[in-house]
Amino acid sequence: MDNKDLVVGIVGFGGMGNWHKDTLGNIEGCRVAGIYDIKASQVELAKSLGIHAYESLEALLDDKEINLVLVSTPNDVHKPIAIQAMRAGKNVVSEKPVTLSSQDLEEMIDVSKETGKLFTVHQNRRWDEDFLTMKQIYDSRTLGEVFRIESRVHGSRGIPGDWRQEKEHGGGMILDWGVHLLDQILLMMGDTKLKTVYATITNVTNQVVDDGFTAHLTFETGLEIIVEVGTSNFISLPRWYMLGQNGSAIIEDWDMKGRIVKATGKDEKDVVPVHTASGITKTMAPRREDTIHVEQLPQVTSDIRDFYRNVRNVIINKEEPKVKLPEVMRVMKLMEAIFESAEKQTVVHF
Fold first, then answer.
1. Does residue 250 contact residue 259 with C-beta atoms inside 8 Å?
2. 60: CB partners within 8 A, 6+ apart
3. What is the mean pLDDT of residues 16-30?
4. Distance CA 230, CA 85 (A)
5. C-alpha dist (Å) from residue 13 to 17, 54, 72, 104
6. Considering the chain, what is the average pLDDT of its residues?
7. Is cis: bond before 273, omega within 30 of 0?
8. What does the alpha-carbon distance between residue 250 and residue 295 come to, in Å, rounded to a whole number?
9. What's the CA gap between 327 and 323, in Å, rounded?
10. Is the distance from CB of 335 to CB of 97 less than 8 angstroms?
11. pLDDT tens digits for 112-130?
């Protein structure tokens, strides 16, 4: 083994474990040594793909060639596996959500400090181009001072028919999709402090765990952000909607269909009223075309493989990790605040 290679053992070879295997196979200096899974079907799948399958977790951890363990199991067992791996001398990447509570996460961080091993989380949607596009619009003040942002993902099939439907395994949409959208928002906001959280959850298709939620976040600047996940939406609202003093931006869907509409600076002195069903209105009349300017969204590209390139460089070259544990902790505490707000039906001061 080249001592500059990232050699990975994958624990949990389901959908995401397989995705990681494919991704690592396309990164120079990275390779998969093998997998471990408690399900015989996944072991057979690995073998059919020519991947070594360890007979136990201990056997995987005993392999001196492996310098990184990826934990891609159901959420409730991330913590014990990650701790066992770090104490066995391995660096660890955990799938999101890293665990089920901030107290659990604190224990995992303590073991990382105790062992001196890298411990980070696969917050892969930091590399989503829709997010990076809206972040660029926000950072560049293209719309002037932004006063409202809406971030949503909508589906219409309920929760997948697996452990994500079960509370004991850490199921539900707050932990499954909320962890992504909230991480994106907090990254976009940088050092701007979150002040209040008010949230509601839905149980339309599942009475055991939340199958959707809406969180209203208010920041110290007065900026209001709505983060929403729905699984019973047969007509989806836009993925992103951003409002500023000088214009608005929208991204409709994963295909990056969207636009920016800005004021040109021309005053509308003679507004032509619009006729509605029961009267006329100037307030809600559309702007004249000569007073607005439509722009295309900025082109932002990314490469999810940069996550593992960074992990490799952290381990080999002592680079700074892109996903930092204080950021992960802040997202975990925000998810806990959302659960608390929904349960108590009250505003939570963050």
1. yes
2. 9, 11, 34, 35, 36, 54, 66, 69
3. 96
4. 35
5. 4, 12, 7, 23
6. 95
7. no
8. 11
9. 7
10. yes
11. 999 999 999 999 999 999 9
Per-residue pLDDT at 165: 81
Average pLDDT, integer, range 53-72: 98
pLDDT tens column, 251-275? 999 999 999 999 997 777 778 889 9
CA separation for the pair 179, 122 (Å, rounded): 11
CB-based burial label for 99 (10 Å; 0-12, 13-18, 19+): buried
For residue 324, what pLDDT band results from cuts at 50, 70 and 90?
Answer: very high
Tell me the H-state helices in the chain: 15-24, 40-48, 57-62, 78-87, 102-115, 129-139, 173, 179-189, 305-317, 325-344
Do residues 259 and 296 lie in contact, with contact meaning Cβ atoms separated by under 8 Å? yes
Reduced to 3 states (helix: H, G, I; strand: E, B; else coil), residue 183 is helix
The per-residue pLDDT for 160 is: 81
Q: How many CA atoms does the CB half-sphere of 185 hold within 13 Å?
A: 31
Handedness of CA 184, 189, 191, 197 (dihedral sign): negative
Structure tokens at 229: 């996940």
Report the DSSP beta bridge partners of residue 35.
10, 53
Q: What pLDDT score does 108 carry? A: 98
| CB atoms closer than 10 angstroms to residue 266 | 11
User: Looking at residue 1, what is its pLDDT?
Assistant: 46
pTM of the model: 0.95
| Residue 317 three-state SS | helix
Contact 23, 308 (CB under 8 A): yes
